C-alpha cells in the first residue's frame, strides 16, 4: 500500500507504462488491468465499403494514463467510465492501445487510481481546444500545428466525395475571412450538418495547418467543432473616388476598383452641413472614409 493506493498487480499483469513502452502486441497471457477514466464520442467511418465505428477512451492505473481506441462495437458498453477492465491481445501503436475484434476485455474488480491520472486521461480524450488565432497568424503557423479560427463564411462549396484508403469519404470546403485575411480555405472532413451559411460568423476549433505547393489551408480533425459566433466589429479605411446614391443606400467606388455599400443617411451625416454625397465625393479627390461594421451591418461612417 503506497499513498493510500493498492499497487499490487495480479500475476502476469502489465502496467500501462510497461505496456506502452514495450511497443509490442500483448499476448492473451500478458494482460493489462486499468480503469476507464474518460470516454469520447463514437466515431462513424467507412472502410473498404463497410460502415464501421470506433470509440476512444482513456485508461489509467497507478503508473500512467493511456489512450485506447476500441474497434469492436459490440464491446463499447464494457468501456463505460468507472469500469475497471482487464485487456488481452491488444496492439500498442504510437503510445496508444488498439483494441480489435480479436482482443478480449473482462470486467474486473474496481481499481482505485490517483486523481492526477484521471485528469491526465480526461485531457487525452477531451483536450482543451487549440489557441484561437487571426487567420493571417494561423496560416503562418508551422505545418501540422493545430489552431482555432474565427471568421465570416464568404463561400460554401457542396459536399463532395473522395476515396481514402479504398473507402469513400465526404468533405466540404468553406472559405472564411476576417480583418487580417480576405479568403482562407477550410476543408471539413466528414462534415456534420450545420446551419452555417455565407454571411455567418463561425468559430472552428482544432484545425490543422496544411501546406501544399506553396498554398496554405486549414483542415478539420477528429476534435474539430464548428459553432455560429457573434459577428466581429471591424473598422476599414476606404479611399473613395466616386459615389452613386440609390435611395437608402449609397454605393462607393473605391480607389482599387472595388465598391462598398453604406447607408445613405449615415454617410450624409458625416458630411459638412449643406453638402450632397455625390458632389462632395467628386470635389474631394481620394476621400478617406473610415467605416465601422459588424457583420453585414454598417455601424458608423467617419470622414
Q: CATH top level of the largest domain?
A: Mainly Beta
What is the residue-mean pLDDT, rounded to a whole number?
Answer: 86
Largest sheet geometry? 8 strands, mixed
List low-pLDDT spans: 6-11
Protein name: Replication protein A OB domain-containing protein
InterPro entries: NA-bd_OB-fold (IPR012340)
Structure explained in plain terms:
With 303 residues, the protein is mostly beta strands. It has 3 domains: 13-125, OB fold (Dihydrolipoamide Acetyltransferase, E2P) (Beta Barrel); 135-229, OB fold (Dihydrolipoamide Acetyltransferase, E2P), CATH 2.40.50; 233-302, OB fold (Dihydrolipoamide Acetyltransferase, E2P), CATH 2.40.50. 12% of the residues lie in helices and 49% in strands. It has 5 helices and 20 strands. The protein has helices at 16-22, 115-125, 135-139, 264-270, 277-283, and strands at residues 13-14, 31-47, 50-60, 65-70, 84-88, 91-93, 96-99, 104-107, 146-156, 160-164, 167-178, 181-189, 201-212, 215-219, 226-229, 233-246, 249-254, 259-263, 287-294, 297-302. The strands form 3 sheets. Strands 1, 2, 3, 4, 5, 6, 7 and 8 form an 8-stranded mixed beta sheet that branches. Strand 13 and strand 14 form a beta hairpin. The chain is elongated. The N and C termini lie far apart (76 Å). This is Replication protein A OB domain-containing protein. It comes from Mya arenaria (Soft-shell clam).
Notable traits:
5 helices; 49% strand; 12% helix; 5-stranded mixed barrel; single chain; NA-bd_OB-fold; 8-stranded mixed sheet; mainly beta; OB fold (Dihydrolipoamide Acetyltransferase, E2P); 3 domains; 303 residues; elongated
Amino acid at each position: 500500500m503506497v499513498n493510500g493506493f493498492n499497487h499490487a498487480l495480479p500475476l502476469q499483469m502489465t502496467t500501462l507504462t510497461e505496456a506502452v513502452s514495450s511497443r509490442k502486441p500483448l499476448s492473451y497471457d500478458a494482460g493489462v488491468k486499468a480503469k476507464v477514466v474518460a470516454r469520447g464520442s463514437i466515431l462513424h467511418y467507412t472502410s473498404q465499403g463497410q460502415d464501421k465505428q470506433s470509440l476512444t477512451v482513456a485508461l489509467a492505473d497507478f503508473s500512467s494514463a493511456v489512450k485506447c481506441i476500441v474497434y469492436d462495437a459490440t464491446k463499447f458498453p464494457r468501456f463505460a467510465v468507472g469500469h475497471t477492465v482487464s485487456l488481452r491481445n491488444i496492439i500498442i501503436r504510437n503510445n496508444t492501445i488498439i483494441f480489435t475484434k480479436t482482443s478480449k476485455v473482462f470486467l474486473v474488480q474496481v481499481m482505485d487510481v490517483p486523481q492526477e491520472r484521471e485528469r491526465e486521461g480526461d485531457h487525452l480524450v477531451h483536450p482543451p481546444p487549440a489557441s484561437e488565432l487571426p487567420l493571417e497568424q494561423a496560416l503562418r503557423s508551422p505545418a501540422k500545428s493545430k489552431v482555432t479560427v474565427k471568421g465570416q463564411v464568404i463561400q460554401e462549396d457542396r459536399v463532395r466525395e473522395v476515396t481514402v484508403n479504398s473507402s469513400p469519404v465526404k468533405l466540404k470546403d468553406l472559405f472564411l475571412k476576417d480583418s487580417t485575411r480576405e479568403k482562407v480555405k477550410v476543408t471539413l472532413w466528414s462534415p456534420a450538418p450545420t446551419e452555417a451559411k455565407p454571411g455567418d460568423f463561425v468559430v472552428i476549433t482544432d484545425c490543422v495547418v496544411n501546406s501544399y505547393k506553396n498554398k496554405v489551408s486549414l483542415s478539420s480533425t477528429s476534435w474539430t467543432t464548428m459553432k455560429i459566433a457573434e459577428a466581429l466589429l471591424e473598422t476599414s479605411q476606404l479611399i473613395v473616388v466616386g459615389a452613386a446614391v440609390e435611395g437608402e443606400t449609397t454605393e462607393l467606388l473605391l480607389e482599387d476598383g472595388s465598391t462598398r455599400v453604406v447607408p445613405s443617411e449615415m454617410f450624409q451625416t458625416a458630411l459638412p452641413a449643406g453638402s450632397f454625397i455625390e458632389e462632395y465625393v467628386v470635389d474631394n479627390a481620394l476621400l478617406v472614409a473610415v467605416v465601422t461594421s459588424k457583420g453585414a451591418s454598417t455601424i458608423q461612417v467617419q470622414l
